[in-house]
Specification:
The structure holds two protein chains of two kinds. By secondary structure, chain A is an alpha/beta fold. Chain A has 23 helices and 17 strands. Chain B has one domain: Non-ribosomal Peptide Synthetase Peptidyl Carrier Protein, Chain A, CATH 1.10.1200.10. Classes of the chains: A alpha/beta, B mainly alpha.
């Protein structure tokens, strides 16, 4: 109901009963979201709630009084302070631009107007930084009317020109300010069409700066950013082959018979789809194949000279005659990600039905059978919405490929220890430094399996911890003879007198069974001793996904000190601690 | 479309917007009697009616109407 293409009118009309339905689900994460509006926001709040509930996020809202976004942000108030938002959404639009250029204004005067406008937002963002929260900020939509006609977009007095300048300044700010995310309503309003986006009558009657029908589109866009902030984006695109990656059936038509390339309109449309998948791959999304085919035929399809995607682009390749949901479960295991990180594209409605009914946590958009529409279902649903492009994401596929080589080697050694020695592993395990803070924040928000407390941090919180004396905060990077695994482990502890309480212990599943956790523990103990700590307290909070680490502290030699339901608390006296890591050469602070 | 059909359509919209499946409105029902019928819900009602019946109200046309009956009468005019 909340996927592309949802029915805006239906959602608006039935919102109350939809909400009741959504609340029947369990296991929500609760988040505090403050909406600071420059126009009416009540329906935005109501509908945003539905989209977030659908994504497993239960929002508590703070809503500013009408058009009090500036006052609330700058001067604060007790309610907002007490509310302590995880996210602030600033809903401003072109209606909130204080002063447009007048025709008599000189270029200098217009520059000043622009600076004044930007300054206002800069002061909003900087005063909100006290909350250490993510800030989602609208950029500006164009005005519906433009008295200068086409000139409006290139004369310095034009409103369109002014808005373009503002938007490019917003973009620059968002690149520089951590925690600031742009909700691109300039794109969204063009996508919907400005005349549908803005409703003059509704503006005058109720001061909504967008039409009611556009509200679900707006909050859909916001919810994609929120999903990305909380690490709910997908990681892997699973593709069917025949009539999905190419036109025709490779087993029947042969390599010469399938449609791919630029010869015909049909062939070209499959090429366009392959190009899109390749773009996703290049920025770190993993590709996999799940197809009912003979393996040999399936592989051959990517040897077509015009094929954009090659066999090597796929981290997992399942072409056989087993049911697709079983193959998809295998793909997730092979890549070591959760089923809810997968998106499956297939032109065949029967296959889509089987997969979505057997494994509901896999996203299976209803793409229809025409390849022309496949991209929009991936794109509009924001499955792979990134909040930044990190080198680690772009390199991720390399790790998986290196991992395949590692797995191959593993089988040729007599013992696992011997294999670990052969990897020639070195690690850098040090206290947080500024260049890694983005990556650290990202990992805290998306690591689910090897994560003892599943505590999520905002960029601001991580920054504070990085400079705090009462915290131990270490990251680990691991390299082996096959390549660099990047930053993959984080431990954060709070020091209280002679105890260190471990708030966060996580590791990327990319480096499971490499003894990296022991190297991290050694460094933690070393730093604890330096700070006069004699006892480490570890916490395990059970989640739906972190069962694999329920006995981690036990393996470390901690003693169980308390147990409530399935959550456990552990203690380790470090006075006689012996280093546990034997296989990794470590450089530390 | 008869007045009764229009009236029933409007009642369905009221039931959806206020999420009360057995809500019964009368010609004399006004915003004073329905607790949640505030200015913001009024906008939602009007918008749903416009879509359902494919009509448009002019700015302010609905502000002066005193009850549901008057609203349905205005709709009948537009649906002619």
């Amino acid at each position: 109901m909340f996927q592309y293409q949802f029915d805006s009118s239906f959602i608006l009309r039935k919102k109350k009963s939809i909400k009741k339905q959504l609340l029947l689900k369990d296991s929500f994460i609760e988040k505090n979201i403050a909406i600071l509006g420059g126009s009416t926001t009540s329906e935005i709040k109501n509908i945003l709630e539905l989209f977030l509930l659908d994504n497993g996020i239960k929002p508590n809202f703070y809503e500013s009084e009408y058009n009090k976004y500036y006052e609330d942000a700058l001067f604060g108030n007790d309610d907002l302070d007490k509310f302590n938002p995880d996210i602030v959404y600033i809903h401003t639009t072109n209606q909130n631009i204080i002063k447009y250029p007048e025709l008599k204004d000189s270029e200098e005067e217009i520059t000043i107007l622009l600076e004044n406008e930007i300054k206002r937002y800069k002061s909003i963002w900087s005063s909100l930084s006290k909350f250490d929260c993510a800030i989602i900020q609208n950029n500006f939509d164009y005005t519906l009317d433009r008295s200068l006609g086409n000139l409006d977009c290139y004369d310095i007095h034009g409103k369109t020109y002014f808005i373009n300048q503002l938007n490019s300044k917003f973009s620059k700010q968002a690149r520089e300010i951590k925690n600031l995310y742009i909700n691109d309503i300039n794109y969204l309003s063009s996508y919907i069409g400005l005349k549908n986006w803005f409703d003059k009558s509704l503006w005058h009657q109720a001061k909504y700066a967008l039409s009611l029908d556009s509200i679900p589109e707006l909050v859909f866009n916001i919810s994609k950013i929120i999903n990305a902030i909380f690490g709910k984006t997908k990681k892997c695109l699973v593709l069917d082959l025949d009539n999905t990656c190419w036109g025709g059936v490779i087993g029947d038509d042969g390599l010469d018979g399938i449609h791919i390339g630029t010869e015909t309109a049909i062939a070209e449309s499959y090429t366009t789809f392959q190009k899109y998948a390749k773009e996703l791959k290049q920025r770190g999304i993993t590709l996999a194949v799940c197809s009912k085919n003979d393996f040999k035929n399936a592989k051959e399809g990517f040897e077509h000279p015009e094929s954009i995607l090659k066999f090597d682009d796929f981290t997992s390749f399942k072409a056989n005659w087993d049911p697709k949901h079983q193959n998809i479960i295998d793909i997730a295991k092979e890549i070591n990600i959760g089923l809810d990180s997968l998106v499956f594209i297939d032109d065949n409605p029967v296959e889509r039905d089987i997969v979505s009914s057997q494994i509901p946590s896999v996203s299976v958009p209803n793409v229809g059978k025409d390849v022309i529409h496949f991209i929009e279902h991936i794109d509009r649903n924001g499955y792979f919405e990134p909040i930044s492009l990190l080198a680690d994401d772009i390199n991720r596929n390399q790790y998986y490929e290196d991992n395949k080589k590692r797995a191959k080697e593993e089988s040729t050694f007599k013992s696992y220890d011997e294999f670990l020695v052969s990897l020639e592993m070195t690690a850098e395990i040090k206290s947080f430094s500024s260049i890694y803070l983005d990556r650290i924040t990202q990992l805290t928000n998306k690591t689910n399996q090897f994560n003892l407390t599943t505590k999520r941090y905002t960029a601001g919180e991580i920054e504070n911890i990085a400079s705090s004396d009462s915290h131990i905060k270490i990251y680990g990077k691991l390299t082996d003879k096959y390549g660099d695994n990047g930053l993959i482990a984080i431990t954060i502890g709070t020091i209280k007198e002679n105890q260190c309480h471990i708030d966060l212990w996580l590791m990327s599943c990319r480096v499971l069974k490499r003894d990296m956790e022991f190297a991290m523990l050694d460094e933690l103990v070393r730093q604890c001793k330096e700070k006069g700590v004699s006892e480490i307290i570890g916490y395990y909070y059970k989640s739906a996904k972190n069962n694999m680490v329920s006995d981690l502290y036990e393996k470390f030699g901690f003693l169980l000190s308390d147990k409530t339901d399935e959550n456990t608390i552990w203690k380790l006296d470090i006075s006689n601690y012996d280093n546990k890591n034997k296989f990794i050469g470590v450089s530390n602070d | 479309m008869t007045r009764e059909e229009v009236f029933n359509g409007v009642q369905d919209i009221f039931r959806d917007i206020f999420d009360e499946d057995d809500m019964v409105i009368e010609n004399t029902t006004s915003s004073d009697e329905v607790e949640d019928w505030d200015s913001l819900n009024h906008i939602n009602l009007v918008s749903a009616i416009e879509k359902e019946f494919k009509i448009k109200f002019a700015l302010g046309e609905l502000m002066t109407l005193k009850d549901v009956g008057a609203m349905v009468d205005l709709m009948m005019e537009k649906l002619k």
